[in-house]
């Protein structure tokens, strides 16, 4: 009997080609598009350059499903998205952190919620267009998450939150492919989205204006406060901590006669610390909200390569367990602009050991 797969179809080229490949491999597939928010809920006017979650995306996904002769479903997960992603995004900025809502969306919705729905509909697996690989390791008895063959498109960093159950129920058809091959398949099959650009920025924030979204849509009050130097001396006035993130240089509105960067934010004092680029560097970080994949739990110090940003190249480090749900990362070399709220992911070669949220 054919295995049944529900393909998460965003309307983009990657998920569409994932569906094409699985159908040609003999799976019994259907498409599913997730409705996570309404444009009117988060935008005063709709931007056409968005490529995620819009009505246009739903229509593109439906068109591809029609071309493939498969069923297409639209699931309304707006309430969960509001609670687990948008509200957490708001709270994190209010607390002085810089969140990664795309990772939270993967954690709470794109995999866990979709897998629940797929099981209810008696499907064996879900599939997505992410660039990463899943393998079962007989020696450890665990599912492993590995980097994609196309390292320029690898998305293992944003998938570190997947549980063993998630991995056991997920197929990633593009993990062994290059992006150029995916585009070629889409063009050869004459898919409507063959030349559609990849998603950019956060889907529910128009034009990357995070502070504007928080103020105008979420009603966050942006209270002015003091810019201080690393000695605590007041050197100016900021317009509210939600307007700044660690490492930021542009848009500070303060002239010091030399390049200045955001070093830290303090919610309690409502201060933003400004300093030199050299003061951005640090050698350790602490992370919590851990999800371990290659091992059940970190019980001893381990060598790893580590990323603290999606686009960053990994760097050598030691990861030390601390308590039940935290890890101390000790880098071999100082790292620039380690940012609370962002994710840190640990690798052993191509294998994702696990990761957590920087605190």
Show the helix and strand layout.
Elements: E1 4-8, H1 13-24, E2 28-35, H2 39-42, H3 55-68, E3 72-76, H4 78-94, H5 101-110, H6 112-120, E4 125-127, E5 132-137, E6 142-147, H7 164-168, E7 170-171, H8 179-188, H9 210-216, E8 225-228, E9 234-238, E10 261-266, E11 271-275, E12 281-292, E13 302-307, E14 315-321, E15 326-336, E16 343-348, E17 351-358
Helix pairs in contact: 1-3, 1-8, 4-5, 5-6
Describe the structure.
- 25% of the residues lie in helices and 29% in strands.
- The protein has 359 residues and is α/β, with parallel strands linked by helices.
- Helix 1 runs parallel beside helix 3, helix 4 (78-94) packs antiparallel against helix 5 and helix 5 packs parallel to helix 6.
- The strands form four sheets. A six-stranded antiparallel beta barrel has the order 12-15-14-13-16-17.
- Mean pLDDT is 93; it is low at 43-51.
- The protein folds into three domains: 4-208, HUPs (Rossmann fold, 3-Layer(aba) Sandwich), CATH 3.40.50.620; 222-275, Roll (SH3 type barrels), CATH 2.30.30.280; 281-358, Translation factors (Elongation Factor Tu (Ef-tu), domain 3), CATH 2.40.30.10.
- The protein is built from nine helices and 17 strands.
- The chain has helices at residues 13-24, 39-42, 55-68, 78-94, 101-110, 112-120, 164-168, 179-188, 210-216; strands at 4-8, 28-35, 72-76, 125-127, 132-137, 142-147, 170-171, 225-228, 234-238, 261-266, 271-275, 281-292, 302-307, 315-321, 326-336, 343-348, 351-358.
- It is globular, with a radius of gyration of 22 Å.
